[in-house]
Amino acid sequence: MSLGSASAASLRIHPLIVRVSHWLNALAILIMIFSGWRIYDASPIFPFEFPDYLTLGGWLAGALQWHFAAMWLLVVNGLIYVLYGVLSGHYRRSFFPLRLDAILHEFANLLHGRVSHALGSYNPIQRLAYLIVILLGITLVLSGMAIWKPVQFQELAGLMGGYDSARVVHFIAMAGVVGFIVVHLLMVALVPRTLPPMFTGRLPRSAQPVDGAEH
Amino acid sequence: MNKPRPLIFDAMPGRQIERIERRLFLKRGLSLGALALLSGCNVTEHESVQRMLMAMSKWNDRVQGWLFDPNKLAPTYPESAITRPFPFNAYYSEEEAPIVDPHSYRLELGGLIRDRKPWTLPELYALPQVSQITRHVCVEGWSAIGKWTGTPFRVFLERVGADLGAKYVGFMCADKYYTSIDMATALHPQTQLSFKYADQILPAKYGFPMKLRIPTKLGFKNPKHIMAIFVTNTYPGGYWEDQGYNWFSGS
Questions:
Q1: Nearest-CA distance from B189 to chain A in Å?
Q2: Cα(B11)–Cα(B218) distance, integer angstroms
Q3: Cα nearest neighbour of A170 on chain B
Q4: Residue A81: which pLDDT band, with cuts at 50, 70 and 90?
Q5: Which of A143, B87, B170, B237 reaches 20 to 30 Å from A169, CA-CA?
Q6: Nearest to B244 among A42, A61, A164 (CB)
Q7: Which of A52, A59, A168 to substitute to test the interface with B, most B CBs within 10 Å?
Q8: For an interface test with A, which of B20, B27, B31 has the most A Cβ atoms less than 10 Å from its Cβ?
Q9: Minimal CA separation from A40 to chain B, in Å
Q10: What is the pLDDT, as a whole number, of residue B28?
């Protein structure tokens, strides 16, 4: 990067394609979760149900319509995002290297109330969390396909341990994503200045980290 | 989970049954959780949202038609895997299952069929029969494995001279249920005009005198108490399909 752009008023940390796919994904995921809870309630696999007011669709048919409409947004947008992440080197730069000792060190820091949050680069726990949630997303799509088409995609369903097990896999992956979202939102609430760059892509100069700084 | 809860209806998602009377197609769409998501009003009920959702459901019909492999068989299971008792499914309770008189019964045929003479039960029973042990997957999410015996539907359609190039096969039932399927599924080797469940003549609760067993579709696409079969190129819809359930509903 040239000296000129480094001294510009702001620093680009989130590429446009990541920002757009992030917000489209947020919309798709919320629709999938809230409609999915209504679908779950039609035949629960665990001894609890989701309250109606936390669900989307009004009844089973409505929830299914939402679920099977938003799945296209989720999958098409997700494919574009993952392809971009892999091909552009975005994943390699942002998530790697990911070393176990670095993760453990970061956890130890966390226990002592210290969090590394240099804007524009991810700490080891963030790297791990983002990688896991991407894998959970892929698991959700694959188990969802197995549930949707247990005959046409019977090999996939078999990989999940059969139709009924695929439902459990789908549920557990959903729970993992919900857990991620809760922590994700909590972190944004704790460090609110991470939010504007998710819209603008740019970091105000005042918020730019000093080289190597961990706060 | 293999154990469906009692009194869940498949052709009629059980706990929805009383709600549905109070509700037209997809009423009362959104609730609080999603309100936060999409601003102040009932989103599902909104007309443009309705149109979008219906358009996506139609798109999904087409995609499922492409995904459907006419030669891919649904998995079959050993007798030991059969779910006992096999759950009752309908949009009404088990006691309300229609009683069909076997002596006066005639299967009516209509539409694009060359030989539309009605069939008596003994005539139907004389058709070649095969058995299958397959998984019934309910739109609600639960599933159950059962054994059905009857004649491959393709054999019957060929016998009566149905137009196999037509788009749809429709069914009218003694319980006022109705549904329709695509011709490709009608001709699938495992699609069966079933007369027996677990080697016994179908009891009323499982659809006497016959049901169409389709292991490549969700449970509600398997009509019971069939009184009339017709072949057509005009989309016939169905009892649940007309209320918003996806028409193709392949599995």
A1: 14
A2: 9
A3: B141
A4: very high
A5: B87
A6: A61
A7: A59
A8: B31
A9: 8
A10: 45
Residue A32 to residue A113: CA distance in whole angstroms: 34
| Tokens, residue A1 | 């990067």
| Nearest alpha-carbon partner for A71 in A109, A36, A106, A44 | A36
CA distance A170 to chain B (A): 12
Sort out which chain B residues have CB atoms less than 8 A from A55's CB and list them: 31, 33-34
**Which has the minimum average pLDDT: A67-76, A94-103, B82-91, B152-161?**
A94-103
* Residue numbers in A near B191 (CB within 8 A): none
- Banded pLDDT at B41 (limits 50, 70, 90): low
Closest CA to B106 of B91, B121, B96, B126: B121
- As a whole number of angstroms, the distance between CA B164 and CA A126 comes to 58
Q: Are A174 and A33 in contact (CB under 8 A)?
A: yes
Of the candidates B74, B137, B140, the beta carbon closest to that of A60 is on B140
Position with higher pLDDT, B223 vs A9? B223
**Cα–Cα distance between B161 and B117 in angstroms, integer?**
11
By C-alpha distance, the chain B residue nearest A64 is B245
pLDDT of A37 over the 50 cut: yes
- Distance, CA of B224 to CA of B213 (rounded, Å): 9
Backbone angles phi, psi at A127, to 5 degrees: -60, -45
Taking CB atoms and an 8 Å limit, are A56 and B53 in contact across chains?
no
Contacts of A42 in chain B (CB under 8 A): 13, 15-16, 139-141
Q: Is the pLDDT of residue B83 over 60?
A: yes
Distance, in Å, from the CA atom of A96 to the CA atom of A84, rounded to the nearest integer, reads 16
Residue type, A72: W
Helix (H) / strand (E) element for A38: namely helix A16-42
CA-to-CA distance for B116 and A66, rounded, in angstroms? 41
Give the residue carrying structure tokens 């603008």: A200
Mean pLDDT of B162-177: 97
Give residue A211's pLDDT band: very low, low, confident or very high (50, 70, 90).
Answer: very low
Residue matched to tokens 């539409």:
B111
How many A/B residue pairs have CB atoms within 8 Å? 132
